[in-house]
Write a structure and sequence with these properties.
The chain is mainly β. The chain has two helices and 22 strands.
Length: 334
């Protein structure tokens, strides 16, 4: 998770923090939920999940044959599956043989970040990030598969990259199809904020050279855009503040909305998200630390908010909650 260019030592990358966690055993086997029940708080705890639930940056897709496929940050892009959205198991990696084409951005580290999964026209589409600590020399790539299984993914190449001369960072992709059938990809982390480009459905690559700004905090901590359409609104969920510090993480999930997919997005008070606006949806409480890098999807029983959070011992775990909507159309967790 590459951070602000002027103070790179303050904001460690995903691979730096995950490497440290592995070295200290923080990602070793742990109870399936936080060890201590959260104290009474404004927010409910995550729903019960079991099995292999250690992860960062989850992205869900419902499989046509039933069940769920989950991609998340890890070596060669990590995969999990679940039949019921409760019990999860490891499903290998997208690229078991590695992804050497990402080396110019990662320096050879195999940890690839913040994937986004979707399914359309009989194929799974996976956008994922390659970067390294202290640099916005970053890239988003595309892979496709008809089954979604480990080792079946085809590298489709580069979608967008950023250079040190750019004021944005090409990581944290999220694909959304609008009501007219057009494809869009939101992305970004820190720097001047979150961006959007149009995607050609035939290729999965950029449709044109236009770049839209959709949210920012004046160089401050914002990343992980997630788009969701409901009731004539496009909702932009984002993560504010800092990930990847274990129980000291300050990540929190914020939202704004717009009638147009390209914005302007505004929060409940009317503040533009390009001016730092955002209405809080979920933040740390009790034994739930730094919830963020969210995914939102509609399921048969309810709309779902997925995210990672940290237990008291610093372990990163999967969180799932139902997402409700108030009478004014703003989301809340329950």
């Amino acid at each position: 998770m590459t951070r602000h260019p002027r103070t790179p030592s303050v904001f460690p990358s995903r691979r730096t923090m995950l490497g440290a966690a592995l070295a200290t055993g923080a990602l070793s086997a742990v109870p399936t939920m936080a060890a201590a029940a959260p104290a009474p708080a404004d927010y409910p705890g995550p729903g019960v999940v079991t099995g292999d639930i250690r992860l960062h940056d989850p992205s869900f897709v419902k499989r046509p044959e039933g069940g769920y496929l989950v991609a998340h940050t890890g070596h060669d892009v990590a995969l999990k599956t679940s039949a019921d959205r409760t019990a999860f198991r490891d499903a290998g990696t997208v690229f078991p043989g590695g992804a050497p084409w990402t080396t110019p951005y990662t320096g050879g580290d195999r940890n690839l970040w913040a994937p986004h999964l979707s399914h359309a026209n009989g194929r799974y589409h996976l956008y994922y990030s390659a970067s390294s600590f202290g640099s916005n020399r970053s890239a988003i790539f595309l892979a496709t598969s008809t089954s979604g299984n480990s080792g079946t993914w085809r590298d489709e190449g580069l979608v967008i990259e950023s250079f040190t001369s750019n004021d944005y960072n090409a990581i944290d992709p999220h694909l959304q199809v609008d009501t007219r059938g057009r494809w869009w990809m939101a992305f970004g982390s820190f720097w001047s904020g979150l961006k959007m480009v149009r995607i050609d459905p035939a290729t999965g690559k950029r449709y044109d050279g236009n770049l839209y700004s959709i949210a920012g905090r004046g160089g401050g901590a914002i990343e992980a855009p997630t788009l969701f359409h409901r009731g004539g609104w496009y909702y932009l969920f984002v993560s504010f503040d800092l990930c990847c510090r274990g129980a000291d993480s300050t990540y929190r999930i914020m939202v704004g909305r717009s009638r147009s997919i390209t914005g302007p997005y505004r929060d409940r008070n009317g503040t533009a998200m390009t001016s730092g606006g955002g209405t809080e949806v979920l933040s740390g409480h009790g034994g739930i630390h730094g919830p963020g890098h969210q995914d939102v999807f509609a399921d048969t029983d309810n709309d779902i908010l997925a995210y990672h959070y940290y237990a008291d011992d610093g372990t990163a775990l999967l969180g799932l909650n139902w997402l409700g909507w108030d009478s004014s159309g703003w989301p809340y967790v329950h």
